Amino acid sequence: MDSVPPPLLVAGASSLWTPDGSPSGLGLRDRPAIAIAGGRIAWLGPEGGLPPNLATDPRLVRLDAAGGTLVPGFVDAHTHAVFAGWRADEHRRRLEGASYASIAAEGGGILATVRATRAASREELAELLRSRLDTMLLNGVTTVEVKSGYGLDLGTELRQLEAIRDAALAHPVRVVATYLGAHALPAERAHDREGYLREVMDLAIPRVAQDRLATCCDVFCERGAFSVDESRRILSRARECGLLLKVHADELSASGGAELAAELRALSAEHLLDASDEGLEAMASAGVVAVILPATSLMLRARPVEMARLRRAGCRVAFATDFNPGSSPVDNLPLVAALACITNGATPEEALTGITLHAAAALGLEDEIGALMPGRCGDVVVLDAPDASHLAYRMGARLARHVVRAGQVVVRDFARVA
């Protein structure tokens, strides 16, 4: 994605939808079109209103939307997509009644993936991630956050982050890397908890920041993982080193993670199944995005977060896949948007905003991506549907006919071309 593509006109659409800050978003139906120049949106409006300087540009390339709907490129704001190994056996056990916590206590869960990921090379991890990014791209994802956290030692955490960087360099999807060394306490450090915390704070975080291996730092603030005080120490150190903050909060219990995210003014707090009303309200006041993971609560048979609570609290809400081999082996973000409507009670407009503008805000990129506006990055999806509500209606369907990333057509007629 280094070279600047020629100007592009996406025309022939039946409708356009983009979040604009209102509950229903901005919808256009008078044969809308988008022009992208220099990788950024230069104009949008009725097809007949294309400015003369663009209409007469001999380099202008036209992409036929074939009666589809134009929407912003999708943003998956929470994934663990760089890992080795799967855990289908654990899913079977959960179906038989075992809990997430009991499986983890027996050495399964995160620690099972840690063992597999430690055994994988940087090249193997990068190739696995490239393949997963391919799948995401075909579903309309143009930006994705990828966390480390399956190394839980300095060497493997750095190897994961280097693999993320390697995969991103060779792929059109924009990748935002997050350091999650505080995902769990590694088995070999069970009797050296403070020593592991010092390794994360004194060795890993400064190295990650110095080498620019990640943009964000996350921590699993949860009973059985890291306490509020421990999480505060880790995140405060990350902020000192220039990393943006994210929090795995209140997934399995009322851990106080939402309140901590508000206190530290993190970009986002994620999961939030057991967050208190007070915590959600504090997040809203502090501008912290609530990242909700509908596939995870479904897979764990947990009560989903009700959208009505999030509305009352005033939170900006993003929806993400949480793609990982344990609690959410789901890499289909449009499917998750549909689940947000069915299980969480989101409207189709809220769901689409949650995988575009609000997801961008959860990555600190809301001024760059997530909306179709002049000056924003030219990330556009052409849905093979007459309007955007089909994302919620046709659950799991392949609807991304064309995908444009920074003005370059990277998926055409459902196939990757760049």
Task: Describe the 3D structure.
The chain is globular, with a radius of gyration of 21 Å. An 8-stranded parallel beta sheet has the order 8-9-10-11-12-13-14-15. A 7-stranded mixed beta sheet has the order 3-2-7-16-17-18-19, with helices on one face. The protein has a 4-stranded mixed beta sheet with strand order 5-4-1-6, with no helix packed on it. α6 (154-169) runs parallel beside α7 and α9 (257-263) packs parallel to α10. The mean pLDDT is 96. By secondary structure, the chain is α/β, with parallel strands linked by helices. The protein has helices at residues 52-55, 88-95, 100-105, 110-118, 122-138, 154-169, 193-210, 228-240, 257-263, 277-286, 294-299, 307-313, 333-344, 348-354, 357-361, 390-393, and strands spanning 8-11, 15-18, 26-28, 32-37, 40-46, 61-64, 69-72, 74-76, 141-147, 174-182, 216-221, 244-249, 268-271, 289-292, 317-319, 380-383, 400-405, 408-412, 415-416. The protein starts with 7 loop residues before the first strand and ends with a strand. The chain has 2 domains: 8-72 and 371-416, Roll (Urease, subunit C, domain 1); 74-361, TIM Barrel (Alpha-Beta Barrel), CATH 3.20.20.140. It is built from 16 helices and 19 strands.
